[in-house]
Amino acid sequence: MQCRKHLTGLAFTFLFVVSCFTNKFVLSVLKFTYPTLFQGWQTFIGAVLLLLSGKLGWLEISRVTRSAALYWLPGALLFVGNIYAGSRALSRIDIPYFFTLQNSSHVVSYIISTAVHGEKLQRLTFISLCFMLISAIHLPLYDPQFDHSGYLWAVGHLFCVGAYRVLQVRYKPSNLSDLELQCINYLFSVLLLAIAAHPTGDLMGALEFPSLNSYTFHCGCCASALLGFLLLLATVKLKSGFSLEHFGVWIFMSKVTAMSLSPFIFDMDVNTHTFVCVVVSHAAEALLLYSERDPQLGRGETTVSCF
Questions:
Q1: How far is it, in rounded angstroms, from Cα 299 to Cα 292?
Q2: Of 63, 94, 162, 224, which one is least surrounded by beta carbons within 10 A?
């Protein structure tokens, strides 16, 4: 049984890394920087596969009521902001830097929790959050390939991730499973991104995209959508088989694996300062995981968002 659990974790890590690299390849290498279409395609395929799997009885997905969908509307809106801004940022920022900035979403989550729910931070948690924030602030100052637009989108992304994490922990409807919640996210995303495709100019830009009829482009887009769906299933399976603390550890290990392998796959320009920022940020994230697993030092829960 324990071996099977670890195999699930390894499968999750594999899907996480490959999905991350595939998205980066389409966005940066192929330069398909039209997030309303790219994310709309991914969420459309995800919604279709979820609904089809539920219809065939492969997954347990109940009919979502209109009241439940409306209740989760703020969360679905944050999900759209998360994937849209994340695509914009990832297309311009290297993977290790992207995850370093994304770590600051924990700061946003704790600020919201403290302001709204009056939670008190333990010393170790506060120290880890400070190091994450300091690393994120210093990173753009030393990034040799600094992209102003990319970092602005990354800030929007981390705010959406941080706020979504709080909603998912505090306000998730008890009558909805993770799969049903994600189905609402997908359907709302498809609707909103389809409406936004023309006003943002993404539709016209995509029609003139040089690699539109390329075999590599088609394979990359299809792989990204399928991998996103498989990663969702692996995430749900991992959460059901492990405690929240161990689930957070697997997320952390997957991110570190992706960052460690990314320089061998994509061109990167790293210097001592940016390397220190990346290392300090993720050491602080490890410290945060440790503080949350000890009820004497943290809240006793892990709210790590999956990329």
A1: 5
A2: 63
